[in-house]
């Protein structure tokens, strides 16, 4: 079990290779193969969940081997509390998305091979502990995504795919520059994240540009790279386009996993390696921007008429909670933030799957073009209600815990902002209920009386997520216990650095 | 062997060389040119052997002469084959006719 | 304070939850296979069992010393992060015991009633699933041992209320009413959340971060002198909590959802919008009485809002024609009285009125439901009349409940309302102004309630002939709860007979342990002026009697025409009242319109400006790249081509050397060798 993480990362790669060897007309075989290579990582993940040492501060399941020795680049993977929650989310969502992609019938072989490659990149990003390896995985994930949107997407797929690709790539470049700077400033040069974190205090305090120190500039470069991924205002406009055009499963992955990479990167790299700059910038770039994200996303969502775009904007709103929570440096805030990352992954995945279900039947997503679906598809409506209420943060469901923790944690640091952010509970209820009313309730639209009820395969993708949403609402410590120790340590790193940092607030 | 010195051999070799060179330069018949080449090679052989005999104690010259004879045989074989090929294509073995490689 | 750990309390909320889950997931199948009866049993049994356990808890409390009447059932840990600790735990003390008895008792009756009322509905099972879920949420709300568990119930009742108001979801009128209820409640929840945060962090800064009520109570003293943004923490926190209470309990300015909530089936109106959910705000203030007692400014606001609501809702109630809307405004108004009680620190009086109001208002709602049921779903009182003989049980129970709400001496409403009015006058936070408003409201209450009775049960029947033919008394499942509740409306008042009338006020004694910390608000204060108390009581009874008399003149004797009164001032005042002061319209325009305007603007901003910048960046990049491409073609590549072309030209000239003639080559070779040799020789 030493190499469990490597197996989790590279099994899908093996699967992709196997799929490439299969005849391209064997659609079912290809789909089954894809599923067969994403289920073992899930089982390994469950095993990891059970055996993970909740009390340990450091990285676990570490594997380290020299890779490009002349540049001190290692194959170095491992997980701590922050990353294990994200790894679990990834391995959970991947088989679900394979199931959700069962209806794909265009270039099936390419789709599933690319999907598995995407899986490799995603898992890899979360387990990589060598910055270079991290960057490689980061880029590995980008390319399949481009093709998956660009080939299997909707009418404006090329536009959306290019926008997504270029936007993310622009962020990657800034990240690359910062990464190289960190590499060369370490002596001996290293990409080892653990060592780079240990060096966090060693950067010069002298201002180099507009009164900003080296650390500040690095922080900003990395932050922009990650903010694009979150996506934080004003770098978010690729998201609605990508979501609207992407096929259902890809939307699920995009919202469920990819967005988390932004906040994960900030926690792992900005917080871990540049704590002083983090302390200086947290207010403006995380708290204020996060609050703005929450309100802005909610209000934009309210004005949408495309169901998928609405969910996309609600994602922007919900990711704002993550930023606000992590900016407060209270145990509740930062735990709430990471829990919110996990919960948003499951809840938004459900929402996108549900939109996919209706899109497959009605072939449009116009909120005003439906009505009274509850009479036609009662089971579907029931599941939707669960997902919508979870997204509203209703108590008893998972998102409530994380939102309350975030808001409670943020209150201590920024009560004013918290009041503004908390007002989103009203806005969220507003747009969610209004949507629900227009699509599912009211007189049944004559056009859609013949729609078929949600089928077993679609239910199989939704029910596990629904169960998790309920269980985590009642027993949030299933995730909180995993993440708490690592996050408290990270909090301490930033707080102790903050006491020596130049106050910019 | 008295009375015949190195100069005599060299003179014969020179004559042969000049004759061979003249043949090569003046003949338009490809086979003729080949024969001229043979003469030139043999003039070299004479020089090798003569220098070996009068120059030193080793037999290097004689050995090289044998190499050259072998080479000449091979050259003749390849050359005649080419000439045959030329004849097949051009119905002539006049070297003036074979100007396809011009410009 | 001594706690008794127990482990059976959890079943009180758990049983209805089990009922809800069974009905929700298997209900459709059960209804198909076993009919409505199966669902009815599955839904009613858990609530009645929960009532039995509640009675057991009550007896358990009775067996304990008054100071240690606290039963705690800690089920499991829930959230434990940093100093924040919230358990899933349920607490039964005298206050929550009263509430669970009411919820499961009256709730159980309403469940039974609903099996008759909802008869024949396709989604019978769904109705009871939500009704059970509501009961669970409400019980969680009152039993919750800490603010977060209470909040679970707090939002849960909002959800169930939303689902039940919009139960007949094919009509957008119903779903809109549901949305309105949920969203307005969310505004209150927002305030409640902020209150939780402020309380927690204030206590935390003193080293006592806590969410459990008894811990907050224990450490409340430590934040007495703290300030936040220049406000005393206790004042600000209680104001936040009060925002939550106004949402849930339908007080100004958040009362607007309750009248619309009448779109739901009548048992829902009775259970949620009269008896239980709307009292949550009152209960919460009673639960946090120790904190409110620390904040006189908040108490003044509470009392002021309560009085204003009591008065304004009553004026609207005077002119409404929908039988349920009258009751809805009456509920808003009565809740206002409870808030007056809370605002003057008369916690017991407020809770007492809550209980008596539960009985008579549930009875009134169920009675109106019975009328609606008998009248083939007609709700307009102008089309009723003369039902006294056709629906005798409904009539008598309705009349008893009306007498109670009007404050007829010796009925339940008399004792509780009178106690509130007396405290409003005599408490250290009270004032005669509050009393005057309260008495005026009581007069109007008597007037509109009797107007309703006269319009509905007396006179000629004004319904269509075919509706008239079908008028019938409701089945036993519906009349039985009416009778029980009517009996309660007559009798529960005797639990709290004030001392000056020779009673011993059991109710007061029972709740005393809960309110001892907030008691300096005047609960023990002012009982000496017996003569004054008598006087005030007589005045309020007289005013109520006047109200009844006015209704009698207008609607029974018809000595005066209501239409003529309505025409006073050109009909302006009447129209204003009939349209509920246009508050809904104002809210629609300002709040909803404003939000939508902002949201559309931001969506435009997002698409046109933010995304516009992104796309403009792309366009500029394309433009630059086009120019760059041109430069590349015309300049850089031109240079490359120039070099290539020159080389080609040179080659063209030089190739003439290649003659193809072997002789020529040989001459060149020989010539060249000769030249070289000559050069060497020279």
Structure explained in plain terms:
The complex is a heterotrimer of chains A (505), B (103) and C (682). Chain A is globular. Chain A has helices at 4-21, 27-51, 81-100, 108-127, 131-152, 157-185, 193-198, 214-229, 238-245, 248-273, 275-303, 307-327, 331-362, 373-376, 378-391, 398-413, 415-422, 424-440, 456-474, 477-498, and strands at residues 60-68, 73-79, 207-209, 212-213. Chain A has a two-stranded antiparallel ribbon. Chain A has a two-stranded antiparallel ribbon with strand order 3-4. In chain A, 74% of the residues lie in helices and 4% in strands. By secondary structure, chain B is mainly alpha-helical. Chain B has one domain: Helix Hairpins. Chain B has 3 helices and no strands. Among the domains of chain C are: 299-573, no CATH class; 582-665. Chain C is built from 26 helices and 5 strands. In chain C, helix 4 (147-165) packs antiparallel against helix 5 (172-205), helix 13 (323-343) runs antiparallel to helix 14 and helix 14 (347-374) crosses helix 21.
How many H/I helices of chain A? 20
Task: Look at the structure and give the mean pLDDT of chain B.
Answer: 88
Largest sheet of chain B: none
- Uncertain segments of chain A are 501-505
SSE pattern of chain A: HHEEHHHHHEEHHHHHHHHHHHHH
Low-confidence stretches of chain B: none
Reading side by side through the largest sheet of chain A, how are the strands ordered?
Answer: 1-2
Defining traits:
heterotrimer; A: 505 residues; mainly alpha; two-stranded antiparallel sheet; 20 helices; globular; disordered C terminus; C: 682 residues; 26 helices
Report a brief summary of the structure.
The complex is a heterotrimer of chains A (505), B (103) and C (682). With 505 residues, chain A is mainly α.
Question: Helices and strands in order, then pairings?
Answer:
The complex is a heterotrimer of chains A (505), B (103) and C (682).
Chain A: H1 4-21, H2 27-51, E1 60-68, E2 73-79, H3 81-100, H4 108-127, H5 131-152, H6 157-185, H7 193-198, E3 207-209, E4 212-213, H8 214-229, H9 238-245, H10 248-273, H11 275-303, H12 307-327, H13 331-362, H14 373-376, H15 378-391, H16 398-413, H17 415-422, H18 424-440, H19 456-474, H20 477-498
Antiparallel strand pairs in A: 1-2, 3-4
Helix pairs in contact in A: 1-2, 1-4, 2-3, 2-4, 3-4, 3-10, 3-13, 3-19, 3-20, 4-5, 5-6, 6-8, 6-9, 8-10, 9-12, 10-11, 10-12, 10-13, 11-12, 11-17, 11-18, 11-20, 12-13, 12-16, 13-15, 13-16, 13-19, 13-20, 15-18, 15-19, 16-17, 16-19
Chain B: H1 6-26, H2 30-55, H3 60-90
Helix pairs in contact in B: 1-2, 2-3
Chain C: E1 4-5, H1 11-62, E2 71-81, E3 84-92, H2 94-117, H3 124-143, H4 147-165, H5 172-205, H6 213-219, E4 227-228, E5 231-232, H7 233-248, H8 257-260, H9 266-275, H10 280-287, H11 289-292, H12 296-317, H13 323-343, H14 347-374, H15 387-390, H16 392-406, H17 412-426, H18 432-457, H19 465-470, H20 476-491, H21 506-515, H22 530-556, H23 562-566, H24 572-578, H25 583-654, H26 662-681
Parallel strand pairs in C: 1-2
Antiparallel strand pairs in C: 2-3, 4-5
Helix pairs in contact in C: 1-2, 1-3, 2-3, 2-9, 2-14, 2-20, 3-4, 4-5, 4-9, 5-7, 7-10, 7-12, 9-14, 12-13, 12-18, 13-14, 13-17, 13-18, 14-16, 14-17, 14-20, 14-21, 16-18, 16-20, 17-18, 18-22
């Amino acid at each position: 079990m030493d190499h469990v993480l490597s197996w989790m990362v590279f099994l899908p790669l093996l699967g992709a290779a196997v799929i490439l060897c299969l005849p391209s007309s064997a659609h079912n075989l290809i789909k089954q193969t894809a599923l067969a290579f994403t289920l073992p990582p899930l089982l390994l993940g469950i095993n990891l969940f059970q055996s993970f040492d909740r009390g340990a501060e450091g990285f676990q399941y570490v594997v380290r081997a020299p890779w490009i020795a002349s540049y001190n680049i290692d194959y170095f993977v491992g997980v701590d509390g922050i990353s294990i929650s994200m790894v679990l989310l990834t391995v959970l969502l991947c088989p679900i998305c394979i199931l959700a992609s069962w209806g794909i019938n265009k270039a099936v072989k390419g789709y599933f091979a690319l999907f598995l490659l995407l899986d490799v990149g995603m898992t890899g990003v979360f387990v990589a502990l060598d910055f270079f390896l991290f960057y490689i995985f980061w880029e590995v994930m980008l390319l399949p995504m481009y093709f998956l949107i660009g080939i299997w997407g909707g009418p404006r797929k090329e536009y959306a795919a290019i926008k997504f690709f270029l936007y993310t790539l622009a962020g990657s470049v800034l990240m690359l520059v910062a990464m190289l700077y960190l590499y060369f400033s370490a002596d001996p040069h290293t990409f080892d994240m653990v060592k780079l974190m240990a060096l966090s205090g060693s950067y010069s305090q002298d201002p180099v540009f507009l009164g900003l120190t080296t650390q500040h500039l690095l922080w900003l470069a990395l932050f922009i790279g990650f903010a694009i991924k979150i996506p934080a205002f004003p770098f978010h406009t690729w998201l609605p386009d990508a979501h609207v055009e992407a096929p259902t499963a890809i939307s699920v992955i995009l919202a469920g996993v990819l967005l988390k990479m932004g906040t994960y990167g900030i926690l792992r790299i900005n917080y871990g390696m540049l704590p002083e700059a983090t302390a200086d910038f947290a207010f403006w770039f995380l708290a204020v921007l996060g609050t703005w994200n929450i309100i802005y996303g909610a209000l934009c969502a309210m004005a949408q008429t495309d169901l998928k775009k609405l969910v996309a904007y609600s994602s922007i709103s919900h990711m704002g909670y993550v930023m606000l929570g992590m900016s407060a440096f209270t145990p509740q805030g930062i735990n709430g933030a990471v829990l919110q990352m996990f919960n948003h992954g499951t809840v938004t995945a459900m929402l996108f799957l549900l939109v996919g279900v209706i899109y497959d039947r009605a072939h449009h997503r116009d909120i005003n073009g439906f009505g009274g679906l509850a009479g036609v598809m009662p089971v579907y409506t029931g599941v939707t209600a669960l997902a919508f209420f979870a997204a509203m943060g209703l108590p008893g469901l998972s998102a409530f815990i994380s939102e309350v923790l975030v808001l409670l944690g943020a209150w201590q640091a920024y009560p004013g902002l918290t009041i503004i952010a908390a007002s989103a509970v009203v806005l969220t209820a507003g747009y969610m209920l209004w949507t629900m009313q227009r699509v599912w309730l009211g007189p049944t639209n004559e056009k859609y009386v013949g729609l078929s009820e949600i089928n077993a395969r679609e239910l199989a993708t939704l029910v596990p997520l629904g169960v998790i949403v309920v269980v985590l609402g009642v027993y949030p410590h299933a995730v909180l216990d995993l993440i708490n120790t690592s996050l408290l340590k990270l909090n301490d790193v930033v707080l102790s650095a903050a006491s020596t940092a130049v106050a910019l607030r | 062997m008295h009375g015949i010195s190195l100069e005599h051999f060299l003179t014969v070799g020179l004559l042969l060389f000049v004759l061979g060179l003249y043949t090569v330069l003046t003949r338009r018949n490809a086979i003729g040119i080949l024969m001229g080449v043979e003469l030139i090679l043999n003039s070299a052989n004479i020089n090798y052997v003569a220098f070996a005999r009068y120059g030193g104690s080793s037999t290097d010259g004689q050995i090289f002469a044998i190499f050259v004879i072998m080479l000449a045989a091979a050259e003749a074989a390849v050359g005649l084959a080419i000439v045959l090929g030329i004849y097949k294509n051009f119905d002539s073995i006049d070297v003036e006719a074979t100007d396809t490689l011009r410009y | 304070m001594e706690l008794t750990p127990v482990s059976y309390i959890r079943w009180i909320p758990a049983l209805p939850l089990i009922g809800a889950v069974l009905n929700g997931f298997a209900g459709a199948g059960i209804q198909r296979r076993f009919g409505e009866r199966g669902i009815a049993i599955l839904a009613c049994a858990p609530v009645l069992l929960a009532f039995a356990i509640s009675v057991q808890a009550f007896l358990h409390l009775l067996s304990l010393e008054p100071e240690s009447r606290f039963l705690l059932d800690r089920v499991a840990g829930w959230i434990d992060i940093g100093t924040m600790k919230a358990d899933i735990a349920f607490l039964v003390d005298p206050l929550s015991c009263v509430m669970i008895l009411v919820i499961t008792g009256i709730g159980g009756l309403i469940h039974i009633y609903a099996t008759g009322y909802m008869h024949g509905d396709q989604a019978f099972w769904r109705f009871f699933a939500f009704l059970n879920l509501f009961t669970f949420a409400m019980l969680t709300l009152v039993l919750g041992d800490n603010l977060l568990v209470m909040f679970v119930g707090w939002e849960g009742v909002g959800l169930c209320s939303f689902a039940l108001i919009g139960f007949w979801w094919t009509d957008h009128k119903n779903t809109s009413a549901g949305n309105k209820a949920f969203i307005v409640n969310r505004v209150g929840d927002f305030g409640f959340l902020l209150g939780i945060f402020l309380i927690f962090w204030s206590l935390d800064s003193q080293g006592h971060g806590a969410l459990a009520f008894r811990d907050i109570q224990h450490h409340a003293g430590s934040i007495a002198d703290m300030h936040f943004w220049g406000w005393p923490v206790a004042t600000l926190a209680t104001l936040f909590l009060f925002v939550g209470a106004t949402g849930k309990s339908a007080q100004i300015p958040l009362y607007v959802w309750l009248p619309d909530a009448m779109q739901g089936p009548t048992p829902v109106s009775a259970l949620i919008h009269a008896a239980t959910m709307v009292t949550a705000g009152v209960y919460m203030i009673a639960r946090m009485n120790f904190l409110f007692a620390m904040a006189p400014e908040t108490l003044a606001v509470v009392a002021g809002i309560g009085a204003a609501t009591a008065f304004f809702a009553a004026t609207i109630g005077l002119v409404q024609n929908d039988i349920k809307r009258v009751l809805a405004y009456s509920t808003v108004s009565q809740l206002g009285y409870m808030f007056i009680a809370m605002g003057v620190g008369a916690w017991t009086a407020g809770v007492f009125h809550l209980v008596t109001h539960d009985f008579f208002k549930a009875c009134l709602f169920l009675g109106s439901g019975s009328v609606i049921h008998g009248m083939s779903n007609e709700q307009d009182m102008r089309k009723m009349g003369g039902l006294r003989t056709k629906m005798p049980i409904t009539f008598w129970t309705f009349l008893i409940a009306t007498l109670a709400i009007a404050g007829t001496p010796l009925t339940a409403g008399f004792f509780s309302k009178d106690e509130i009015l007396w405290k409003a006058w005599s408490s250290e936070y009270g004032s005669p102004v509050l009393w005057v408003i309260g008495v005026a409201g009581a007069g109007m209450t008597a007037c509109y309630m009797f107007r309703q009775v006269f319009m509905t049960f007396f006179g000629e029947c004004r319904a269509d002939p075919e509706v008239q033919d079908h008028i019938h008394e409701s089945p036993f499942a519906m009349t039985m709860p009416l009778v029980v509740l009517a009996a309660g409306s007559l009798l529960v008042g005797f639990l709290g007979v004030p001392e000056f009338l020779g009673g011993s006020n059991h109710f007061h004694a029972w709740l005393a342990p809960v309110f001892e910390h907030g008691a300096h608000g005047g609960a023990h204060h002012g009982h000496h002026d017996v003569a004054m108390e008598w006087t005030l009581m007589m005045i309020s009874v007289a005013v109520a009697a006047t109200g009844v008399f006015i209704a009698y003149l207008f609607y029974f004797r018809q000595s005066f025409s209501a239409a003529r009164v309505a025409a006073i001032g050109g009909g302006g005042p009447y129209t204003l009242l009939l349209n509920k002061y246009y508050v809904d319209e104002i809210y629609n325009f300002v709040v909803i319109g404003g939000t939508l305007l902002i949201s559309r603007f931001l969506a435009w901003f997002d698409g046109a400006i933010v995304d516009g910048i992104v796309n403009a960046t792309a366009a500029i990049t394309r433009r630059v790249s086009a120019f760059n491409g041109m430069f590349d073609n015309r300049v850089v590549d031109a240079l490359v081509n120039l070099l290539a072309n020159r080389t080609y030209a040179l080659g063209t000239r030089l190739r003439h050397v290649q003659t193809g003639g072997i002789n020529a080559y040989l001459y060149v070779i020989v010539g060249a060798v000769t030249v070289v040799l000559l050069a060497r020789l020279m």
